[in-house]
Structure formats: C-alpha cells, structure tokens
Amino acid sequence: MALGTNNGSQLYGGFHYGNWMNDRIRYLGGLFGAKFNLKYYPTASLGSVDLSLEGVYFFQEMDVRIGNSDFFIGGAYSYMSSKPTLDGISDPLLHSKDGRLGWRVMYDTRNNQFSPQQGTKAGLKVDYHRKAFGGQFDYQKYNAYAQHHTRLSQNWGLGVRGDVKSISDNVEFPASIYARPYIEMRGIAAMRYQADNTALGEIELSYDIDERWTVLGFVGAATAFNHDESIAKSQVHYTRGGGFRYLIARQLGLRVGVDVAKGPEEWTTYIQFGSAWK
Q1: Which of 61, 169, 182, 218 is the most exposed place for a label (fewest CB within 10 A)?
Q2: Which residues contact 194 (CB under 8 A, 6 or more apart)?
Q3: Distant-in-sequence, close-in-space partners of 90: CB < 8 Å, separation ≥ 6
Q4: What one-character-per-residue DSSP string does 200-245 give?
Q5: pLDDT (tens digit, 9 = 90+) per residue, 174-193?
Q6: Residue 134 falls in which region: left (phi positive, over 0), alpha (psi -120 to 50) or beta
C-alpha cells in the first residue's frame, strides 16, 4: 500500500492480516516506511511547532483464542527508527530507535471484525519498550479499552466506546515527542492533545438505509493530563460529526465511507475502511 496527503506526508509498505485455524489464531504484521508532517504541541496551552517524523516501522502481532471461549491472549513486537525534524532543524541527536515487546488480553464477541454491528470488544495491553529489544529507551505503556455494538431495531444501530492510555514517568527525550499518549478521536488532530494519560468516550448512532448504505452520527469527549495533574481538573475536549458507509465487500462484511468531524479547533474529513474504532 501507499498513500500521501497534501502536506507532504507519505506512507508506503505492506502488511498481512490473517485468521487461522477457524479464528483460533489472529495475526497482523507488516513493514512500513513513512514521513509524517505534523503540528507538535509541547504543551496544550502553547503554540505549535512543525514536526516531521521520518522512519521505518516493523511490527508483528498475534492473538490466540483460549479454548472455545471469546477470550484471546497475545503478544506483539515492534521496531521503529525515526528521524524527527523540529521547525526545519534536523539534529542527529534527535534520531532514535525504539524496540517494544508487549502482551495483551482481549474479549471479542463482535459479529464482524471489519464493520461490526453487534458484540463487544474489550482488552488490556501492556508494552515494554527496552534497549534489550533493539531500542535505546526503557519505559512502559498501558492501554485499556472497550467498545460495544448493539441493534436498537432492524435499521438502527448504537455503538459506545471508551479508551484509556498511560505511559510511565521515565520516558526520555526524544522518545517523549512521539511516545506519550495523545487523544485519538475523530475531530481532533493527531498529537494535538498529548500528555502522560488520556481518556475518551464516544457514542455512534447509525441508520441502515438499505442493505448497502448506512448513515451515522457521533459525539465524543476526551481529556489529556499528566501524572502530576488531577483528571477532575483537566480540560475536556468535545467532538461531533457524521458520515456514511457503503457495503463494498458483502462476503467480508466490509463497509467503506467518509466521516466529517468537528473538534475544538477545526473540521476534519476521514476516509474509513470498516469501523472507525479498531
């Protein structure tokens, strides 16, 4: 695959996603090269600086079903080399390597992995970034998430989502530029609100016009705060938007479409392959 944006960002590479042994084993792996041109906010209250991240990303993930249950246990490995450029300045001291080995547990009853209309997916991920795994930093990341899809009637569907991320307080510079969690939600730019911890919730209501076409609307709220700050006093950021899906691959249950969302700053358009919630 390859893609690009009008600000010069590029992504190219290949991946494989497969279900083996009647969905007893799920695998995802790939190798990508990328250059992302972003706005980086050292703190939410200060202005942005231009950030360009160029590098290579290799990853392997595997989940194994526990018996005949809906629970999975899995592991992941990734390696990333990056060359950040801040405000046009590329310093070799900013170049970095990051190696990660992680484990996770997951509960999944969704009726489709691409565009679910019913079921629940919930899990916990713990990632250890270590020099021993090929990187140059030692820190941990944590992620707890849940999403639930249900049918209100034959045509109406409802989805709810919650996500919490956190990072240990020993992450070093320059890894702190890209490693700290940021709010990942439609309507908010990547890395716009970044901190030691993030928490978000989102609700999506959909209506099936017919077997192929679906329209939807969504609202969400999220916050980002550091370890020395209280979540009760952190600023909450709200989003809203709508979109549509078209059932492009009936056998896979894959729907594609477009979402338009408004966050605190701007309107954003997204091309979606399957659900917006992964």
Answers
A1: 169
A2: 41, 44, 180, 181, 182, 183, 224
A3: 83, 84
A4: EEEEEEEEESSSSEEEEEEEEEEEEE-TTS-GGGSPEEEEEEEEEE
A5: 888 889 999 999 999 888 99
A6: left
Closest alpha carbon to 76 in 151, 127, 120, 20: 127
Evaluate whether 269 touches 241 at the Cβ level (below 8 Å).
Answer: no
Beta bridge partners of 109: none
Is the overall model pTM greater than 0.85, yes or no? yes
108-133 pLDDT, tens digit each: 999 999 999 999 999 999 999 999 99
Give SS3 for 175: helix
Ramachandran assignment for 132, one of left (phi > 0), alpha (psi -120 to 50 degrees), beta (any other): alpha
In this prediction, residue 218 has a pLDDT band, given cuts at 50, 70 and 90, of very high
Task: Give exposure, 238-271, as e/b (b: 16+ Cβ within 10 Å).
Answer: ebebbbbbebeeeeeebbbbebebbbeeeebeee
Q: Beta strand pairing status for 49-65 and 25-40?
A: antiparallel
Give the helix/strand (H/E) hosting 148: strand 139-151
